[in-house]
Amino acid sequence: MKAAFEAVVKSCPTSWQPMPTARRSPMSAPSRRTPGVRGRPRARRTRTAAASPYRSARKRSGGVSLRTSSLTTNVEPQIAVTRTRAESARSASRRGRSGALTAGDDTGRRERRSYHHRPMTPAPRVRFAPSPTGSLHVGGARTALYNWLFARRHGGTFILRIEDTDVERNRPELVDQILEAMTWLGMTWDEGPFHQSERTHLYREAAERLLSEGKAYRAFETPEELEAARKAAEAQGETFRYSGAGREIPKAESDRRAAAGEPFVLRLKMPDEPIVVDDVVQGRAEFPAGALDDFVLTRSDGHPLYHFSVCVDDVAMGITHVIRGVDHLANTPKHVALFRALGAEAPKFAHLGMILGPDGKKLSKRHGAAGAEEFRAQGLLPEALVNFLALLGWSPGEDRERMTMDEMAALFSLERIGPSPSRFDHEKLAWLNGQYLQDVPAGRLADLVKPFGVPAGCSDETLLRAIPLQKPRAKTLVELAQGLSSWVADPADWDAAGLKKFGKPANAPLLKTFLERIAAIEPLTHAGIEEAARALAAEAGVKLGDLAQPVRLALTGTLASPPLFEMIEVLGLETTRRRVLALAARIESPEAPS
RNA sequence: GCCCCCAUCGUCUAGUGGCCUAGGACGUCACCCUUUCAAGGUGAAGAUCGCGGGUUCGAAUCCCGCUGGGGGUACCA
């Protein structure tokens, strides 16, 4: 299995380089091309090249698709939205959710744009920001997919950003794996991949600004001191919160201690008022003031921490909608406070429910497969996996289930995402994959199935003719390969139960007679074979099955296979004769080793 | 502990106050088709909408409480 998978991976075209990567030119940080669109005060920005995000978005939506992706949805079909603006607005408010970019709004925007006016609402910019501490988990794949679908639906931009600020846990070799998985799934990105590890100057600048503006401050406690304080608080049954002691240190003293080389972290001054997070999916949540303490922005070694780099980058990249897992919901008030401190408007948030294993526990390798490449190795088709993942939390309504990526992109909306966690049902995935498999032409299927093992010596022609017979019996490429192997090659042995039931001595002459009859058929078609078989069964006074089953046993070694006469047609007379004679010989001398 | 979120057939979901005797899909079961196994077709079983209160002429849908599940509470992401 493992070898097969490696073969698959090798055979996969690895061509995702058309986009400029931050890696190649680290200095071309998007802050230049994409200045804090919403973040910094307008006046400070020059609106020439700086307007590029708008420009490129407009070009793309004009049907000129800059980065040609076959998956890019055209503008026109997208207008086929089912809900009117009024309906969307009403439902959004009734739900108490903030209706970010409802379908209706967007339709209106699109119309305006066709008159070459600057859109009132800029095209959305979304990002998928995996951290290379593991492969692409299905949860991550689904998050990426929703971001991708949202961008496509609204003619926006999908950005890929690698969150690799944690040097210790970061495994660079996993980046390629994640990129490859995304490519396999058909999710192309418009910008990136940007590596946070190559954007440290941005975080440093932001940190300095926050410090000088008095929105952040230095704190000199050591990790050990904090740990001790935390333990003490817990011992008293209280929640530990940072005291805010650093806030009281006079600026001059703080500067002096820093200059003297005393290690410090930077902490954000949290506002003294409750923070409301208006989530498109989860609804409105209010976090009381004081529930969050002044969290750490940068470590004592100067490295930015997750919350900080995320917000700085979201501002720098002009992110308008943050679509991510619920595990980040509780972090969101921190981000909201940070966006404010950075002088930026917070993006719209959409937090997706957890994907759980079939047992309701957190999905992991224990549940069979959790990473995209594992599903690939199991012989799943990317279009089926993507379709299945899309339905985990999102529903287009109208009982639609099978959809292409283009169709999903045309139907997608954040308002139709459910807030609750969902379980990963392998059975349904397999079923869906089987449905997709039936639509793949034999030629392409032949290429796809080869890495999963096809009997040596099987010609392409035989494979091409055999696949249509085996296809309806397979849900995955693995099953297809196994099914094919069961009859394209000579059987190594015969099924014991089959031998017992159909290995009666009287069957040996019957098998030989069958061979004589079909040898006379020219050309050897399954219809002709069936006719001959029926005639012979009638003559012999047995049911068709009593003739067909021994022949099937001879051909496949088993009692279950594709239609017998069609197999004979594909296999040809010589192969059929060889296998039937082998079984006849076995029947005649049961003691001889087979 | 504290803060936040979630809750409709076994599973994914539809449902946005009357159209719900709760719809679809996977799975399960039965029958049909049939040379076997699948696929396919037809049909069935399966949810007192987690529980308890309220609001209303009317609640799966709105409000409150409870229970259960999940997340956060790091110089991880």
Describe the structure concisely for a colleague.
The chain has 594 residues and is mainly alpha-helical.
Can you walk through the features of this model?
This protein has 26 helices and 12 strands. It has helices at 2-11, 30-33, 52-64, 75-78, 85-94, 103-113, 138-153, 173-184, 200-212, 223-235, 251-259, 306-316, 332-341, 372-377, 382-390, 405-411, 426-439, 442-449, 460-470, 477-488, 496-502, 507-519, 526-540, 544-556, 564-571, 573-588; strands at residues 125-128, 157-162, 191-195, 216-219, 265-268, 275-279, 283-287, 296-298, 321-325, 348-352, 355-356, 422-423. A hairpin with a 3-residue loop joins strand 6 and strand 7. The longest helix is centred in the first third of the chain and has 16 residues, at 138-153. It is elongated. The relative contact order is 0.09. Residues 1-119 have low confidence and may be disordered. The structure holds one RNA strand of 77 nucleotides.
Write the layout of secondary structure elements.
Blueprint: H1 2-11, H2 30-33, H3 52-64, H4 75-78, H5 85-94, H6 103-113, E1 125-128, H7 138-153, E2 157-162, H8 173-184, E3 191-195, H9 200-212, E4 216-219, H10 223-235, H11 251-259, E5 265-268, E6 275-279, E7 283-287, E8 296-298, H12 306-316, E9 321-325, H13 332-341, E10 348-352, E11 355-356, H14 372-377, H15 382-390, H16 405-411, E12 422-423, H17 426-439, H18 442-449, H19 460-470, H20 477-488, H21 496-502, H22 507-519, H23 526-540, H24 544-556, H25 564-571, H26 573-588
Parallel strand pairs: 1-2, 2-3, 9-10, 11-12
Antiparallel strand pairs: 4-5, 5-8, 6-7
Helix pairs in contact: 5-6, 7-16, 12-13, 15-17, 18-19, 19-20, 19-25, 22-23, 22-26, 23-24, 23-25, 24-26
This protein binds one RNA strand of 77 nucleotides through helix 5, helix 10, strand 7, helix 12 and strand 12.
